[in-house]
Amino acid sequence: MQEIIISVGIDIGTSTTQLIFSRITIENLASSYTVPRISIVNKEVIYRSEIYFTPLKSLTEIDANEIERIVKQEYKNAGITPEMLKTGAVIITGETARKKNADEVLKKLSNLAGDFVVATAGPDLESVLSAKGAGSDKLSKEEKLTVANLDIGGGTTNIAVFKKGIVAATSCLDIGGRLIKIEDGKISYIYPKIKELAQSNQIHIEVGEKAEIDKLEQICTLMAEQLSMAINRSTRTNQHAGIYTNEGKPLPEELEIQGLTFSGGVADYVYHPADDDWFRYGDIGVLLGKAILKNDGIKKVQQFQAVETIRATVVGAGTHTTEVSGSTITYERERLPIKNMPVLKIPEEEEMDLEAVTASLIKQIPLFYTEGKLEQLVIALSGNFHTSFASVQELAEAILKGAQEIVNSEYPIVIAVENDIGKVLGNAIKVMLECRKDVVCIDGIHAGSGDYLDIGEPIANGRVVPVVTKTLIFNS
């Protein structure tokens, strides 16, 4: 039996803001008389909004009211209400994530968009979502190639590399089409890193001067060469390290990229070069697309057409953020949904020793205080080392010894395990606590330190819950 859930993706990028709504189909793929195996079997975009220029009040502030107006109008156009949504993501990306009120805007939209829609940001997550929206993961699996997707937006280029459909590495550079802006034929804005890149190559450029095609082409050539270095097709210079967003890390040098896809607003001008009206969008995006197309290092890699280009991130956000838990789980229905829980990860080397499990919890729980007070968190572990009934009971006892602070708090005990022991582990903890404490224990979910987890209301006749694993990191 199938069940349909509706998802939203909202992407507020450096250049553009857009929404999609999608229909996600889940189904029990197990045969009769066996443990249910609920999986997502189909994802279909059912509505695409117009593409809006991201409204700004200034160079440092997003126009939150205008963003809200756009979102409300597109909900109305789609015939969707927040109450109809079961999952989704609101993400703020690229240079816009550095605006001073980015956190405030996300919280506002998260509340507007439904009980389970989540606010997410962070270059690693954005890289993966845009690549999945572009179809790069599927391409790498089908073609058996190591495929990198370059999502080239207004402020950043997000790179995700897939091997056989699995994420192998991610990276993010401050290379984008709106890092130099043009108004009335003159340069109105230059991103500091790009100015430094130009000057180090003896190209002098200033705000207020005439926008000269030849000079800007030279700068775009330098920017394209930085992308070639990033995918290991050109020798990295000393200056290259400074181009990464937030002092981020490059891709491993030993990683050999065999295929490329391009997404983001600039991608259309990589796949379909323009030959006139270079400043049609008031920036260098068209020129940057041309420079990428001509770069010798990039040309050496086999190129594939992306499924989505300018909409890749929003499609990824709306269709690829959601997982479903395993079917052997324990939960208290009235406690769901729970949003924005930081993950306390018990390392696998500690998980093997039950005393180390207790010690790890005692040591880590104080790290999750906010203003001196414990907040709701989720304990994550693999569940691979204690799988018999007796050993799960011992694991439950070790967790409770280490998590007494949670037991004594107002919050439920929430646990996410990778192995399918969620039901027996959750029930064991409930029995040990004589059902005096609410317990939510889900399985089939991988989460690491630094992640945040959202658990939605049960679906599929209560057999599974939708889960979003995300990173709430704001660029500074």
From TrEMBL:
<dbReference type="InterPro" id="IPR043129">
    <property type="entry name" value="ATPase_NBD"/>
</dbReference>
<dbReference type="Pfam" id="PF06277">
    <property type="entry name" value="EutA"/>
</dbReference>
<dbReference type="GO" id="GO:0016829">
    <property type="term" value="F:lyase activity"/>
</dbReference>
<keyword id="KW-0456">Lyase</keyword>
<dbReference type="InterPro" id="IPR009377">
    <property type="entry name" value="EutA"/>
</dbReference>
<protein>
    <submittedName>
        <fullName>Ethanolamine ammonia-lyase reactivating factor EutA</fullName>
    </submittedName>
</protein>
<dbReference type="InterPro" id="IPR050696">
    <property type="entry name" value="FtsA/MreB"/>
</dbReference>
